[in-house]
Amino acid sequence: MNSYWGDLHNHCGITYGYGSQKNALLRAAAQLDFCAVTGHAMWPDIYARNEETAFTIDFHREGFEKLRAHWEEVRTEIAAANSEKLVTFQAYEMHSSRYGDHHIVSPEDGLPLIYRDSPAALLRDAGVRALTVAHHIGYTPGYRGISWEEHDDAVTPLVEVCSKHGCAMNETAAFPYYHNMGPRDSRNTVYEGLRRGFRFGFVGSTDHHAGYPGSYGDGKLAVLADRKDRESIWQALMSRRTFAVTGERIDCRFAVNGMPMGSILPHGSGERRIEWSVKGGYNLGKVVIYKNLLPIGAVYGEQLSPNLQAGRYKFRIEMGWGNNDKELFPWQGRVSVSGGRLIGAEPCFRGRSVLAPSKERGSAQEDINDIDNRILSLTDSVCEWQCFTLKNQTTLHPATCAVIFEVEGAPDTGITIEVNGHRSVKTVSQLAEYGYSEQMKPWHSQAFKVHPVITEAEYTASGTLIDQPGPGRDFYHMEVTQLNGHCAYVTPVYFD
């Protein structure tokens, strides 16, 4: 099967949020295979209105009413965008203090906008094929974190494990929760749900609130499917053939006895053959195979020695920096390869980062993320792209954009790099020894960085494990960490 990349949970100005849905769909098509643009629809058990809560409650209710008033045109625009280039799904969100927040996703363009007080009632009464996804599950129980006591796999077969809110895999996972909704709670992690015997798929999405689905570094999901069309991707979602990534496309395969991630198999008594492979976008740091949340196999980046001989290589060009906090800085780039072949170019583009509404930021910002980041052309020898960047939010919160290139060749394969008029000709072996950076002006400058070449031996790994059944229910899953801190979380194979 193929990996297809998507974002099923992101927001724009169709409710409370910023930017037009039209721009959101254009941004999604530039770097995703599928998406849903998710309107905020309801909060059945919203707290009491008083002087302190008035802004939040009024803001939410105004957003809910906006979606109600424009649902037909929202739904029509999503349906019209479904194509061979970008597969779209219908969706909207229900807040809940009791159940935790969920969004409903459907392959049917006739998904009705209805109002119910639980995910189960929402799914039951929608009258079309649909599922619900639990998101930002790690918040405090009763404070819009998930309630495992109320969880139902038949209603919610997918759980969003990472987004702009952070990562809720376990108490020590990278990307803790630092939003004003509160910290990550140990009782509401993915691991806790698995300990309780639930069987669900792992997904990631951005939860971006300014019309930029797939914004790099905020979370994405992948599905394993035969084809890039709505029905094939829908079947993959329903079968839990999913994995979540926090940043670039860390492509994962994971199967037990030949059955892929998300499978639910009979317990049996025979041995179990676990086969896995990983292809990252950066140096792999660690790959761990777990059985019932305990590690049974691992590969460490220190074991992956570079091999510069003929094969495949990756490098990235990252653009941004500077002190422009309002005006976008434009980039034009071109990479050409001689004596080898350009296998692919992965866009890692960001929009203006917005997670939540505020009193200071008005809602009339239709063009907030009308940012035309895209790959302009790609052949087996040349890639051209354009993107636009703002200054980094802090020294620990980048706003850079990047493109990751994969090249097939040899140490003497030539790579010509042109970025905003700066031109350099290097060989693979030269770029493996050193990357480099260039500044655009003398002071507080925008800049680009060409990261060093890494070899296929450093960004890929695979293996096989043989295991025996335990006395009860078993499940196996995989987690991947790269040396740049980005991660992948692969849905378990379950033995009932």
Strand proportion, as a percent range, falls in 35-45%
Radius of gyration: 22 Å
What summary fits the major beta sheet? 16 strands, mixed
Structural class category? mainly beta
Q: What is the CA-CA span between the terminal residues?
A: 25 Å
Poorly predicted regions are: none
Please report the total strand number as a whole number.
31
Number of helices: 7
Write down the overall mean pLDDT: 96
Q: Which oligomeric form is depicted? A: single chain
Helix content: 10-25%
Shape: globular
Note down, in words, how this protein is organized.
The radius of gyration is 22 Å and the shape is globular. The protein is mainly β and 496 residues long. It contains seven helices and 31 strands. The mean pLDDT is 96. Helix content is 15%, strand content 37%. The chain has a 16-stranded mixed beta sheet that branches. Strands 18, 20, 23, 26, 27 and 28 form a six-stranded antiparallel beta sheet that branches. The longest helix has 28 residues, at 54-81.
